[in-house]
Amino acid sequence: MTYFYEILIVVYLIVALMLIGMVLIQQGKGADMGASFGGGGSNTVFGSTGSGNFMTRTTAILATLFFVISLILGNQTADKEKAIDEFETLGIPGIEQPVDTDVPATENQEPAGDIPN
Are the C-beta atoms of residues 62 and 14 closer than 8 Å to each other? Predict the structure, then answer.
């Protein structure tokens, strides 16, 4: 399942970059007015009328893929448990081991088997 998620992330990134590129390549609504005053090189890549349909359809397909992949990724990550971040638990002291209170602790405690003479 993790391979599918990683592949989907890569496809998502590629679709997002292609969508950004397609939007940036398209000309604005006011570009036709500039072409009528002598800027005739505005539609030379796809022909004089072919760029609108091709670019509009490609942008619509890429936008649809982007939203569908977004929903799939969101659905897959919604069920996962979050890993505990170490920085969130800095204020909580660690669990201390209980100390045995039956025997008092001294610094120079001698073993019980040796009796001094």
Answer: no
